[in-house]
Amino acid sequence: MRRPTCTLARCARRALAILAVLAAVAGAARAQSRVRLEATVTAVAGNSVYLDKGRDDGVRPDDEVLLYAVGAPDLPAVVVAISSGSCRVEHHELLANVPIGGRAVVLLPRDRELEPRTEDPGYQPGAIPDELPWSHPPVAWEEESPLLAPALGLRREERETVWRSRLTSDYRGIRNDEYGTTYTTARVGFDTRAENPFHRGGTLHVNVDGTLQDATLSGAPDVTDTYLRVNRLSYERGGTREDPNLYEVGRFLHNEFPELGVVDGAEWVHRLPSGSRFGVSAGALPEPFPDFESGDDLGVAAFYRYVSGEEEDLALGVALQNTWHEGSQDRTLILATADWAPGPRTSLYAAAWIDYYDSTAVLKSPGLELTELRAHARFRPDDASGVGLHASRVRWPEIERHEFAPVSPELIEDGVVDRVGLDGYRRLDEHLRLNARLDFWRDQDDDGLAYQAGASLRELLYERGEVGLTLFRTDGRYTGGPGLRAYANRRFDRGLGTLTYDFVEWEGEGGNAGTFQQHAVIATFDLILGTRGVLSFLGDRRFGDSVESYGLGLRYTLNF
């Protein structure tokens, strides 16, 4: 077996050489038609991710987002809901490898960023414009007519139906020469949203994709799998100022408590004049696997969320969900959430999953148990810096639903994973940005520490681009060791290119005893096609101990 002899220092020099080559090749080019708005992941629930950027930052529904995943290329997502200071984005698959506190980028049209957000400087109080900005013709007025006539508007049946659709196609091929295997994945997805489709108000959502997976294995039969997956097929109505009742039926992610997951059924949410909300939901719960099978599990939920302030600076929620598996009682879950923004630069979020077990439980003691807790707090002392704290706890619940890979009874009874960490960044000037992260974990048998520190230079080595270098060390249950990640990107007139180099030196224990090194070079290029399409290319090369593979990918997105 070939063993590369690259030390960490030598790999760092190689990484810097790669960055220099990219900088030299970049050349002069004009700015692309979109700008990148950096955001932070504040919560993850199923295939939904919450970011700390919203309407006040220029974000709008249907904006494209790139999520920085762990050990994978950037994941494309789309904004589906926004508030003044946050937004919810969705990806077509579960997002277990997107960390809370991680980075994301929202791609905004450049002309939107340049829109003035202040009053017209030419405005003068009391001045009468030459032309009034009203397009409706004058209405005849008679002496007996009211002085203030009702405003003109269109009834629901008179409004036009507005369609917004997206077509995506992905291809990914990986060849592993070390084991003589080839993996191919092809996916075609269609997402559409129709506003007022039946001239009765409301919105129709459809999100469907088909996937082909093929594996050619050395010394074993080939494996081919195809499936059609309906991610969302629902109709919602209401939830506006005119109608405080929101109804949604079909397959969809819970509106008020997305942490409850996807449901095949119905949900009703009533908004009080104060802004607080309560509601109920009921239906089948699809299993969180690629085929999204549904029917074995049923659930009902009731929930309430208290909000305070015009911008909902404080939101406290609680939900009670009961589920049945194949007709038998399965899980009683209490979900509590808190979202608080005590100031414009401070935010706190926490969510707790609490299971209730009765005397029929085999592996758990009767009573309440904290199954999962996720909390984070962020503070930005100024526009150039920020710091965050995060903590989590995960236990395995005793349930019959097929939600996890098979686990031992001992893990369900005693297994627990606690994490706590600190992260921060500081922009020293318009070019240099520093960041660092520290994480401590502990389970029922062991504990460990992971840390990283990095720096990025923006538009310094070359225009409209960025280079960065991160040094890190991981300490996992069975393996750990030092590593580095170097990257460089370049914005072109109609695209964005990124080159990343990863190196890690694993130090194994037990059955993985020994030291081995692995390298990865990943290149991506996003080409903007007009105002509606994006064509993305991906190539990666991985080599080192027990690894010798390369991959190619192609992704096309069309908005219409």
Mean pLDDT: 80
Radius of gyration: 26 Å
How far apart, in Å, are the first and last alpha carbons? 51 Å
Q: Kindly name the structural category.
A: mainly beta
The CATH class of the domain at 1-30 and 428-560: Mainly Beta
State the major sheet. 22 strands, antiparallel, barrel
Sum up the overall morphology in one term.
globular
Helix fraction bin: under 10%
Low-confidence stretches: 1-33, 113-137
Strand content: over 45%
Number of strands: 28
CATH topology of the domain at 1-30 and 428-560: Porin
Question: CATH-wise, what's the superfamily of the domain at 1-30 and 428-560?
Answer: Porin
**Judging by the overall fold, what is the CATH architecture of the domain at 1-30 and 428-560?**
Beta Barrel
Q: Helical stretch count? A: 3
Tell me about this structure:
- The chain has 560 residues and is mainly beta.
- Among the domains are: 1-30 and 428-560, Porin, CATH 2.40.160; 35-113, Rod shape-determining protein MreC, domain 1 (Thrombin, subunit H); 161-238, no CATH class.
- The protein is 5% helix and 57% strand.
- It is built from 3 helices and 28 strands.
- The protein has helices at residues 8-26, 110-113, 409-414; strands at 34-45, 48-51, 64-67, 75-82, 87-90, 103-109, 162-176, 181-195, 203-216, 223-238, 245-253, 262-271, 277-284, 297-308, 314-325, 328-343, 346-357, 367-382, 385-395, 416-427, 432-443, 447-458, 465-475, 480-492, 495-508, 514-529, 533-544, 547-559.
- The strands form 2 sheets. It has a 22-stranded antiparallel β-barrel. A 6-stranded antiparallel β-barrel has the order 1-2-5-4-3-6.
- A hairpin with a 7-residue loop joins β3 and β4 (75-82).
- The longest helix is centred in the N-terminal third of the chain and has 19 residues, at 8-26.
- The protein is globular.
- It starts with 7 loop residues before the first helix and ends with a strand.
- 25% of the residues are buried.
- Mean pLDDT is 80; it is low at 1-33 and 113-137.
